[in-house]
Specification:
The protein is α/β, with parallel strands linked by helices. It contains 23 helices and 16 strands.
C-alpha cells in the first residue's frame, strides 16, 4: 500500500520486484512491454484495482521501433490485444511511410507491421484484433501436449482478465481458432522449408522416419545388391488400422473450407479419393474364412466421418498421404486407397512387410481389386503407379488372439521369416497418445480437422526423431541380450534331443519357412508350432497306459486295481465338487435343491459300488499290511494309538474328501449325506501303511493317476488364463454398458474356473507329495500366483511380452525322452518337444533378425541426419545469396539441429555401423559384411 499522499499510485506485477510507479514513469518505462499487468491504488476503496497501459493512455506505434510515424495522417484505431496475461484494448497507429519495392511506391501493410512488432493479426486487411506470437506459441504447444481446445484456452484468458465477470471481456474465441490454425500451418511450412501457399510436393510438410528406408535419402548406395534372404533389411515395415474415435459430427459446415496443408500432409488427396470412390462404386462384402471382424466391412458406425484408416511404420511414424476418412465402416474400399496412396514414395523398394488385424483376409483378393482399379483408367494426381513392392502380410500379435488357430500361426510375425521382433501393434500406441484430440476435431470443419490432425501427428514425429537415437541404442542392446539368452536356451534344449531328430526337424523348418511367405500355400501346410491333439497324456490317457501295463504284469487283478483306484478318485472329485455346490447354492429354491439331491443320492450309489470294488482289489492288501504292522508293533512292545482304528488315515492338510469343514454351525441335510460317503485311497493312509512293501503297487498306481490329474488341472488353468487375456482385447472391441457387462460376466467365469483349476493342482500336488513325490520335483513344481502365466506352446495362449519372458517351468529339459524304452512312448515325448523346439528356433531367429534390422536402422538414421544437415546448410547458403537473412538464420539453426542429432548418433551407435571405406577415386570400395551391412556378397 502506498504511503498517504505519495504520487506512486501504480504498480507493475510483471516487472522484477513489482515496483511502484507514477503514471508518467510507468508509461515511459513500459513502451516496449505494454502488456504487463498494472494495478492502480484506489484511495476511496482502499485496495488495488486492475488496469492496463492502454487505459492509462499508452499507444502502439508501428514501423519506427515504438516511436510515432512522422508521416501519419490517420487517427489511432482501438484494437483488442490478446496476450499471455489477459485481454486488453489499446490504441494503435500504423506507419504510413512510403518505400520503393520493385520499382513501385508501397506502404507496409498493417498486418505486416503487427508481425514486425511480435503480434499476429486476426485478419489481413484492417485488423482490429491481434495476438502476441508468444501467446500463439504457448497455445500451440499446449494444444499438442494437452489437447487443450481454443475455447478452453480463451476462457482461461477471459477469467484471468476478469474472474468475477469474464463475459464482459471481449470475445475473440473465433478469431483465436482461425489464427491458431494459420499459425500452426506457417510453423509446419517453416519447419519443412516450404513457401506457404506454393506447396506442390506430395507430403512435403510431413516429418519422415529416420530409421525406415527413404529412397534417395538414407539407403545404402548398393542396397539392390543384397541377397534375397536379407531383403527384409531394406523393407518398409508398416501397420494398417482404423480408428473410430477420430470421427466428425454430422452437422452444417462450410463446404468451401479446405485444409491449408492439403496434399502435403498425412491425409490422402481428398479429390482423388472422391473420384476413386465414385468410379469403384459400392463393393460387395468378400466372404471371410476367419471371423467377421468390423475391419472387414461387417461392422457399422455412423456420422459424417465415422473415423480414419491410416498406415504407420514400425517406429510409429504416419506415412505421408496414407490417411483416409471413413464414411461408415472400415471396408476394403478405403484401405486399398490408403495403401496405394501411402506406398507411392516407396514403390522403388523390393519388399514391404504389412501388418493388419485382418491380414488373413485382406491380401487374398488385393491383387484382383488393384487390377479392377487399373482397368478404370483413373487419372489421379496423387497416384503415379500401381506397381507396388512385393507385400508380405501378417496379423499384429495382440489382434491375433481373436483369430482362429491357423491365422495365429501362418500370419504371425513371430513365425514369419524376416519379421524381426516387429509385433505390428504400433498403431494402437499412436491412437492411445492422440485420441484425446478427437474431442476437438470431431466438432471442426473438414479442412480444419485435417490441419489439426496433420499437426498433431507431425508433433508426435518430431518428438520421436529427437528420441530416436536413444530408442535404437536401447533396442539394439535389448535385442543382443535376448539373442544371447534364446541361443543359450535353444542349445540347452538341443543337447537333450538326438541328432537324427534335430536334422529331421531342421528340414521341416526350412520347408515351412519357404512356403509360409505365400498365403496360397497355407491351406496345405502343417502347423509345426502347436502340438498334435493327441500329443498329451491326460488322466484318461494315463489310465489307459496303466491298465495295459498292469494287465500285462498282474493280469485281471492288476487291471482291477487300476480301475478301483481311478473310480475312487472320481468319487473324491465328485464329492468335493458337490460339497462346494451345496454350500454356494440357495437351498430355498426347490428346483435347485432337488437337482443337487439327485446328484448326492446318485453319488451315494456310485460310492457303494466303488467301495466294494476297492475292497476286492486293494482292501486285502491294506488288511494284510495293517496286520503285519500290528504284529511288528506288538513285537516291539510299542503300541501306536493310530493303529487302533481301521482304515488308518493321515492328515493331508487342508480340506480332503473325508475332512469337510462346514462354514457355519448349520449343517444341511445334503452335507450330512456327503459326509457319510467315505473315500479310501492309498494316499489317505498313515505313512507306515503307505510305505509298506505290500502297498507299493497301489501307491504307484495312484501316483501315476494323480500325475495325470495334476496335468489335467494345469492344462485347464492354461486354457482359462489365455481366455481371460483374450477377453481384455474383446473389452476394447465394443462400447456400451451391455457389452461391458457381457465381457465382465465372461471374465468372472474364466477367473473362477482358472482359480478352481489352480486350487485343484495345488491339492493334487499335496497328495503326490504324500505318495512319495519330492518337494523339489522338476515336473510338478510349486505353483505360485506369479507362475500362473499363459503357457505359449499353444498359439492361442500367446500374449504380448512373451518373447521377453523366460519359458514356463513345465518345459525346460527333455532329456527324459531318449530314456524311454518303448518307441511309442518315446515318439509321444517327441511330439511334445517338437513344437517347443520350433518356437525356440523361431524366437532365436527373430531376435537375430532384430539385431540385423537395428544395425541397419542405425546406419540409415545417420545417413538421414547427414542428408538433412547438408540440405539445410544448402538452404542457408541460398538464402544468404538472395539476401533473405531471416531464412538464412533459421536454416543454419535447423542444420545445427541435425548436426547435434548426428553427433549423438555417432556417439551412441557402434562404430562399425556407419563405417565406410573409400578408394582413391572417392567411390565406395568392396566392404566386409560388418562394415557394409549384412547380406552382401564379399
Amino acid at each position: 500500500m502506498p504511503a498517504e499522499g505519495a504520487p506512486c499510485r501504480l504498480r507493475c506485477y510483471d516487472c522484477l520486484g513489482r515496483p511502484h510507479y507514477c503514471e508518467t514513469c510507468l508509461l515511459r518505462t513500459h513502451r516496449r512491454t505494454p502488456f504487463h499487468r498494472i494495478w492502480r491504488w484506489s484511495t476511496e476503496d482502499g485496495f488495488w484495482h486492475k488496469t492496463t497501459t492502454g487505459a492509462l493512455g499508452m499507444k502502439l506505434w508501428g514501423g519506427h521501433n515504438g516511436a510515432p510515424c512522422p508521416n501519419i495522417t490517420r487517427d489511432p484505431r482501438m484494437m483488442v490485444f490478446v496476450h499471455e496475461h489477459s485481454v486488453s484494448s489499446m490504441a494503435c497507429s500504423f506507419c504510413e511511410c512510403v518505400e520503393m519495392a520493385g520499382g513501385e511506391q508501397l506502404v507496409t501493410s498493417e498486418p505486416l507491421q503487427l508481425v514486425e512488432m511480435g503480434l499476429y493479426p486476426a485478419s489481413w486487411k484492417q485488423p482490429r484484433t491481434a495476438y502476441t506470437i508468444t501467446l500463439l506459441e504457448s497455445y500451440h504447444l499446449l494444444s499438442l501436449q494437452t489437447h487443450c481446445s481454443a475455447e478452453d484456452f480463451y476462457t482461461y484468458l477471459r477469467r484471468k482478465t476478469d474472474n468475477v465477470a469474464p463475459k464482459t471481456v471481449p470475445d475473440r474465441y473465433r478469431e483465436l481458432s482461425n489464427s491458431a490454425r494459420e499459425f500452426a500451418y506457417l510453423r509446419q511450412c517453416k519447419r519443412a522449408g516450404e513457401m506457404p501457399g506454393k506447396i506442390t510436393t506430395r507430403g512435403s510438410l510431413t516429418v519422415k522416419c529416420p530409421c525406415c528406408p527413404q529412397p534417395g535419402i538414407n539407403m545404402r548406395v548398393n542396397w539392390k545388391d543384397r541377397c534375397a534372404d536379407y531383403f527384409y533389411l531394406d523393407a518398409l515395415f508398416y501397420s494398417i488400422d482404423g480408428n473410430f474415435r477420430q470421427s466428425q459430427r454430422n452437422k452444417p459446415m462450410d463446404k468451401n473450407d479446405v485444409a491449408l496443408s492439403r496434399g502435403a500432409g498425412y491425409f490422402a488427396d481428398v479429390n482423388d479419393f472422391q473420384e476413386y470412390a465414385s468410379k469403384i462404386g459400392k463393393p460387395e462384402p468378400e466372404p471371410t474364412t476367419c471371423h467377421k471382424f468390423g475391419a472387414a466391412g461387417y461392422g457399422g458406425h455412423n456420422g459424417k466421418v465415422s473415423g480414419i484408416i491410416a498406415l504407420a511404420c514400425r517406429h510409429m511414424f504416419m506415412l505421408p498421404g496414407s490417411i483416409v476418412d471413413l464414411n461408415k465402416r472400415e471396408a476394403y474400399l478405403y484401405v486399398d486407397f490408403a495403401v496405394v496412396s501411402g506406398m507411392q514414395p516407396y514403390v522403388g523398394l523390393r519388399l514391404v512387410k504389412q501388418t493388419y488385424d485382418i491380414a488373413c483376409q485382406y491380401l487374398i483378393n488385393f491383387g484382383r481389386r488393384l487390377e479392377h482399379w487399373k482397368q478404370l483408367c483413373l487419372t489421379l494426381s496423387s497416384i503415379t503407379t500401381f506397381n507396388l513392392p512385393r507385400t508380405e502380410g501378417a496379423i499384429g500379435l495382440w489382434h491375433a488372439l481373436a483369430h482362429q488357430l491357423l491365422c495365429r500361426i501362418f500370419k504371425s510375425p513371430e513365425f514369419m521369416p524376416g519379421s524381426g521382433r516387429y509385433e505390428g501393434e504400433g498403431m494402437e500406441r499412436i491412437w492411445a497418445i492422440t485420441n484425446d484430440v478427437s474431442a476437438r476435431t470431431k466438432e471442426m470443419t473438414s479442412g480444419h480437422r485435417h490441419d489439426v490432425l496433420n499437426d498433431v501427428y507431425s508433433d508426435l514425429h518430431v518428438r520421436r526423431v529427437h528420441n530416436i537415437v536413444h530408442m535404437l541404442d536401447t533396442s539394439l542392446k535389448e535385442a543382443e541380450r535376448f539373442l544371447q539368452e534364446t541361443t543359450e536356451a535353444l542349445e540347452k534344449l538341443e543337447e537333450s534331443v538326438s541328432d537324427d531328430k534335430l536334422e529331421e526337424w531342421r528340414r521341416d523348418e526350412a520347408q515351412w519357412l519357404q512356403d509360409v511367405v505365400d498365403f496360397c500355400n497355407h491351406e496345405h501346410m502343417e502347423d509345426v508350432y502347436s502340438p498334435h491333439v493327441d500329443a498329451a497324456l491326460s488322466e484318461a490317457g494315463a489310465l489307459k497306459v496303466l491298465k495295459e501295463e498292469k494287465g500285462k504284469t498282474f493280469g485281471i487283478q492288476g487291471m482291477g486295481m487300476v480301475s478301483a483306484i481311478q473310480e475312487m478318485i472320481e468319487i473324491e472329485r465328485e464329492k468335493l465338487e458337490l460339497t462346494k455346490k451345496v454350500r454356494e447354492a440357495d437351498l430355498s429354491k426347490t428346483r435347485q435343491r432337488n437337482a443337487l439331491g439327485r446328484r448326492v443320492v446318485a453319488l451315494q450309489g456310485q460310492a457303494d459300488v466303488c467301495r466294494r470294488q476297492y475292497e476286492r482289489f486293494v482292501g486285502e492288501l491294506v488288511a494284510a499290511t495293517v496286520e503285519e504292522i500290528r504284529l511288528a508293533v506288538k513285537t516291539s512292545k510299542s503300541v501306536g494309538a493310530s493303529l487302533d482304528a481301521f482304515p488308518l488315515s493321515c492328515d493331508l492338510g487342508g480340506e480332503t474328501a473325508n475332512n469337510l469343514v462346514a462354514e457355519d454351525a448349520y449343517l444341511s441335510e445334503y452335507l450330512e449325506m456327503l459326509h457319510a460317503i467315505h473315500v479310501e485311497l492309498p494316499s489317505y493312509y498313515v505313512a507306515s501303511v503307505r510305505t509298506h512293501a505290500k502297498m507299493a503297487e497301489p501307491v504307484s498306481i495312484e501316483r501315476k493317476l494323480r500325475e495325470g490329474q495334476a496335468k489335467d488341472a494345469l492344462d485347464e488353468l492354461r486354457t482359462h488364463l489365455t481366455a481371460l487375456y483374450s477377453l481384455e482385447d474383446l473389452r476394447g472391441q465394443g462400447t456400451g454398458q451391455a457389452h461391458g457387462q457381457r465381457v465382465k460376466a465372461l471374465a468372472t467365469t474364466e477367473v473362477a474356473i482358472g482359480h478352481q483349476a489352480r486350487d485343484e493342482y495345488r491339492r493334487v500336488r499335496k497328495v503326490l507329495i504324500t505318495l512319495g513325490m519330492s518337494e523339489d520335483d522338476k515336473t510338478f513344481r510349486v505353483l505360485t500366483d506369479e507362475d500362473a502365466k499363459p503357457f505359449i506352446i499353444f498359439s492361442h495362449q500367446h500374449r504380448r511380452g512373451d518373447s521377453k519372458r523366460t519359458g514356463s517351468w513345465l518345459w525346460e529339459d527333455f532329456s527324459f525322452a531318449d530314456n524311454q524304452g518303448d518307441n511309442e512312448v518315446k515318439e509321444f515325448m517327441y511330439h511334445k518337444i517338437r513344437p517347443f523346439w520350433f518356437r525356440k528356433r523361431a524366437a532365436r531367429a527373430r531376435w537375430q533378425e532384430e539385431v540385423y534390422i537395428k544395425r541397419e536402422e542405425m546406419y540409415r538414421t545417420t545417413l538421414f541426419f547427414e542428408y538433412y544437415r547438408d540440405r539445410w546448410s544448402a538452404r542457408a547458403m541460398d538464402a544468404e545469396e538472395d539476401g533473405r537473412e531471416g531464412a538464412m538464420v533459421y536454416a543454419r539453426r535447423q542444420s545445427h539441429r541435425y548436426a547435434r542429432l548426428l553427433a549423438d548418433a555417432r556417439h551412441a551407435f557402434p562404430t562399425d555401423v556407419s563405417m565406410v571405406r573409400k578408394d582413391r577415386c572417392g567411390c565406395e570400395s568392396e566392404l566386409t559384411n560388418i562394415v557394409q551391412g549384412i547380406g552382401f556378397a564379399k
